[in-house]
Automatic annotation (TrEMBL):
<protein>
    <submittedName>
        <fullName>4-hydroxythreonine-4-phosphate dehydrogenase PdxA</fullName>
        <ecNumber>1.1.1.262</ecNumber>
    </submittedName>
</protein>
<dbReference type="GO" id="GO:0046872">
    <property type="term" value="F:metal ion binding"/>
</dbReference>
<keyword id="KW-0560">Oxidoreductase</keyword>
<keyword id="KW-0479">Metal-binding</keyword>
<keyword id="KW-0520">NAD</keyword>
<dbReference type="InterPro" id="IPR005255">
    <property type="entry name" value="PdxA_fam"/>
</dbReference>
<dbReference type="GO" id="GO:0051287">
    <property type="term" value="F:NAD binding"/>
</dbReference>
<dbReference type="Pfam" id="PF04166">
    <property type="entry name" value="PdxA"/>
</dbReference>
<dbReference type="GO" id="GO:0050570">
    <property type="term" value="F:4-hydroxythreonine-4-phosphate dehydrogenase activity"/>
</dbReference>
């Protein structure tokens, strides 16, 4: 069977993306995992190898060279800029074009930052909403994978003060369906889905808030009626431990940090972010651009390697 063609976008060239790409290819035989194609700038790959002092031949990496960074020596490294934001978008847009042409099977995205995107005059908050718009996808969800814990988000990048207004039955039901789909993508059949409450102690019968009574529990009941194996709502202070110990296959969280704090505690270096609902498989390392350590030889490629492995595993043809 032919290896899957996986595009790896460079991410923000000023961040850790170029470094972890080089280190991933140096540390692991990526060509044994899949048929990889890095989308970015060859000059950036050559420059990062030189700057961090690696003994690695850039010709070992197949690169679709977009030549977005005209002079890599003048790139503001370790900080967002208009140039890096524009480049990071161009790499992603090209990957989507290649998928539509049937050239690639999946996309692995190295980190970008909303600050650089804004500096470049681009409207998106990150990969998830950008890819949704580029593919005209209306319904999607952000999920996170590790061997020991899988989570999915009901709300994504919104201020905490706005979260309660967004926790509606329809949104929770949709996320439960996406949780089932996420597990199916991972070849987990009839998954056991746990749903978090929003409030401490899952509202404690309305004493600490009514979202569980008015929105979350009705959503769970409706999903159960459709024969989905779903349970809750459970207090967030215990449900992740229960899932980690094997009681549940995935946890539906109400907001970003509710899920990501416990997830990153146990899978900081190996966690993988993936999007549910896109027309293609998309995974990403579960970390950001890490400007504070970028281009210093300090970044680890473990999460990127896991993202490449997961993307290859999830591609079904």
């Amino acid at each position: 069977m032919a290896k899957k063609r996986v595009a790896i976008t460079m991410g923000d060239p000023a961040g850790v993306g170029p470094e972890i790409i080089v280190k991933a290819f140096a540390q692991e035989d990526i060509y044994k995992i899949c048929n990889p194609l890095v989308i970015g700038d060859r000059s950036i790959i050559k420059e990062v190898i030189k700057v961090i002092g690696m003994d690695f031949d850039p010709d070992n990496i197949e690169i679709l060279n977009l030549n977005e960074i005209q002079n890599p020596k003048k790139l503001i490294k370790g900080a967002p800029s208009q140039e890096s934001g524009r480049a990071s978008f161009s790499y992603i847009r090209k990957a989507v074009e290649l998928y539509r042409l049937g050239i690639i099977d999946a996309i692995v995205t190295c980190p970008i930052t909303k600050i650089a995107l804004r500096m470049a005059g681009l409207p998106w908050l990150g990969h998830t909403d950008m890819l949704a718009e580029l593919t005209e996808t209306e319904d999607y969800a952000m999920a996170f994978y590790s061997e020991s814990l899988k989570v999915i988000l009901t709300t994504i990048h919104v201020p905490l003060k706005d979260v309660p207004h967004l926790i509606k039955k329809e949104r929770v039901i949709k996320t439960i369906f996406f949780a089932k789909k996420a597990c199916n993508m991972l070849q987990i059949e009839n998954p056991r889905i746990a749903v978090c409450g929003l409030n401490p102690h899952a509202g404690e019968e309305g004493i600490m808030g009514r979202e569980e009574i008015d929105e979350i529990t009705p959503a769970i009941k409706e999903a159960k009626a459709l024969e989905i194996n779903v349970f809750g709502p459970y207090p967030a202070d215990s449900v992740f431990w229960r899932a980690y110990n094997g009681e549940f296959d995935i946890v539906v969280a109400m907001y970003h940090d509710q899920a990501l704090a416990p997830f990153k505690l146990i899978a900081f270096d190996k966690g993988v972010n993936f999007t549910v609902g896109l027309p293609f498989i998309r995974t990403s390392p579960d970390h950001g651009t890490a400007y504070d350590i970028a281009w210093q030889g300090k970044a680890t490629p473990t999460s990127l390697i896991e993202a490449i492995k997961l993307a290859t595993r999830m591609v079904i043809k």
